[in-house]
Specification:
By secondary structure, the chain is mostly helical. The protein has two domains: about 290 residues, Hypothetical protein af1432, CATH 1.10.3210; about 35 residues, no CATH class. It has a three-stranded antiparallel β-sheet. Strand 8 and strand 9 form a beta hairpin. The protein is globular and about 65 Å long. The model has no long low-confidence stretch (mean pLDDT about 85). The structure holds fe (ii) ion (2 copies). One fe (ii) ion binds next to loops.
């Protein structure tokens, strides 16, 4: 298993360095960081009363395809549960950042939270036991503040090192939330770290197998909403049917929880069957958008960090998700993806 190590510095919105590149994220390192914030107390503010959050959520869930999921009663109960939630000021400031600089992420954070509440109502008992934990849905992508906007909003295929920088938002979010929530074991910090992990261990950043039901809920909502949204790398979103087929396929392969996907599908049915009785069709009738370049990686500009020669020979990893290493044709030195990622970060 990979070690959780930072490949770029993690900072706050006002550019205060939290941890430098190269830091191994051990519990001790995080405790040391948290100790620097001990004593700081933050004001808690009602989530729905903050800025335009209330209007923004309503505007999004009224529109197709979300209106199908958030039918009358669902919408009402979701809003009632959200009303109970209060966030500390720094958390709300992160939402402001995304609203201003990356509206897609802002919208996505609100939707994932609302959707996760909906699914949790079916899959878990007593909202008072899980509603606070599910606030994590709103914070899962906070680490993207450390991803340069040129990478986050690039509408061409990413290079391998840019892809690495993007995927690293998981560990950056883990550090940021550990710091502000003053606990690296807080659920929100765990979700930031693990929401791209998969049940079969094929995810990132560590390739661990996802087991926690609530993280499974957020992970499924995350994939589903990403498919339904226009993105820089895919201007045309997936239609609802194709998006549901896509996540069904992921559940079939053991990447997402079958029950969670079944619940998402039952929420899309008019008669709202109980998720346990919701039959899932495995027939593929949908058509993914043709202009989708998600996951396409170009290996152009593989410059050697040592001699800057532009051609580097690739060495195939033995197992999936194992580090790919390279050998420079110029100076013969060996490098791995982390070295190339560091080089890429220096450019921004
Ligand atoms: Fe993410
Ligand atoms: Fe996300």
């Amino acid at each position: 298993m990979k070690k959780p190590k930072l490949y770029y510095p993690v900072h706050t919105l006002d550019n205060r360095l939290l941890l430098p590149a190269g830091k191994l994220l051990t519990p001790e390192a995080l405790d040391e960081l948290i100790a620097t914030s001990k004593g700081a107390s933050y004001k808690a503010i009602s989530f729905l009363e903050y800025g335009t959050v209330y209007q923004d959520i309503l505007r999004i869930i009224r529109k197709p395809p979300y209106d199908k999921i958030f039918q009358k009663l669902n919408k009402k109960v979701t809003m009632i549960l959200m009303k109970k939630i209060r966030f500390i000021e720094p958390v709300l400031e992160f939402l402001d950042y995304f609203k201003k600089y990356d509206f897609y992420t802002y919208r996505h954070l609100l939707v994932v939270f609302a959707m996760a509440i909906n699914l949790a109502r079916d899959l878990l008992e007593k909202p008072e036991d899980w509603i606070t934990a599910l606030m994590a849905g709103t914070m899962h992508d906070f680490g993207k503040v450390c991803v340069p906007l040129e990478v986050l909003q690039k509408n061409e295929p990413l290079s391998r090192s840019e892809r690495g920088i993007l995927e690293h938002h998981t560990l950056a979010g883990y550090v940021i939330l550990s710091y502000f929530l003053q606990n690296h074991q807080s659920f929100a910090a765990q979700v930031a770290k693990e929401h791209h992990e998969r049940k079969d261990g094929s995810g990132y950043p560590l390739g661990i197998s996802l087991k926690d039901r609530m993280i499974e809920i957020i992970a499924a909502c995350d994939v589903y909403d990403a498919l339904l949204s226009p993105r820089p790398y895919r201007p045309t979103p997936y239609d609802n049917r194709t998006a549901l087929e896509e996540i069904t396929e992921m559940a079939k392969k053991g990447k997402l929880s079958w029950e969670v996907v079944q619940t998402l599908i039952s929420h899309n049915r008019k008669d709202r069957p109980d998720f346990r009785e919701c039959e899932v069709s495995t027939e593929k009738r949908g058509k993914p958008p043709a202009d989708n370049i998600y996951g396409v990686i170009v290996d152009k500009e593989m410059k050697c960090p040592n001699c800057h020669s532009s051609s580097i020979k690739k060495k195939t990893p033995i197992k999936a998700r194992e580090q790919i290493s390279y050998e420079c044709r110029g100076c013969g030195k060996e490098f791995d993806e982390d070295d190339l990622m560091n080089l890429e970060m220096e450019k921004h």
